[in-house]
Amino acid sequence: MEDAAFPHLGESSRPPPRACPPRCSCPRADTVDCNGMDLQVFPDNITRAAQHLSLQNNLLQELPYNELSRLSSLRTLNLHNNLISSEGLPDEAFESLTQLQHIYVAHNKLSVAPQFLPRSLRVADLAANQVTEIFPLTFGEKPALRSVYLHNNQLSNAGLPPDAFHGSEAVATLSLSSNRLSYLPPSLPPSLERLHLQNNLISKVPRGALSRQTHLRELYLQHNQLTDSGLDATTFSKLHHLEYLDLSHNQLASVPAGLPRALVVLHLGRNRIRWVEAARLRGARGLRYLQLQHNQLGATGLPAGALR
Q: From its phi and psi, is residue 254 left (phi > 0), alpha (psi between -120 and 50) or beta?
């Protein structure tokens, strides 16, 4: 009798199927994966509950403001390897993404960085674009920001504002390699542990430029245009935790002064060093690896006792 009166009770009690954009997969209620679908248009029907959205490896040229801004629960937005230009990435859309922690926009067509990214951000990857300029609130005022990747862009020193990282006191990794920097940027985050500056046009580290980076452990300056006059005795002296320093492929004629005691690895290969002054190595008592290949050292270039 009960079955006849309520023939569809079992079916109606099931939860409705989750909406998912065509051709995409939604393995969890908070995850939308549209990776590698050759999408040319931002997919519709993305649930407002989405926390993780992957649109990488597609053909997107722009993100519509009205579609992106309504996804206020997003924590991860992956746009890696698309065709998105700066004009196609509206700054206003990020204002409502107050939960966003990870944004990946590497391998796109950005000419400038977004003027505003959410305060909640932890990781930002804008590598392999054509970025010539970032703005104070691109990476500034982000207390949780830990990693910033800007390598393989077209940044010059003029494109980096002096307050680029103001209020972002937790940044541990910063990659600025393969850009057009001519000197080491000032006002870098004091919290840095890894700094990548290789493959630039750097000929000078301004006095005091690294005086606050006392947590720095790895510094990559290879493939630049550094000469002895571009460094001084205080350049590295306050980096008390520095363990790895790569200065290979530069134009140095001597071992830098003021090497920190904690240094373990020092790369000086492919410079113009003719003479290793023992006093320059004396402070780096923990040094285990010293690379001097492809310099101009003669028979007396490494005097007896220099490594004692």
A: beta
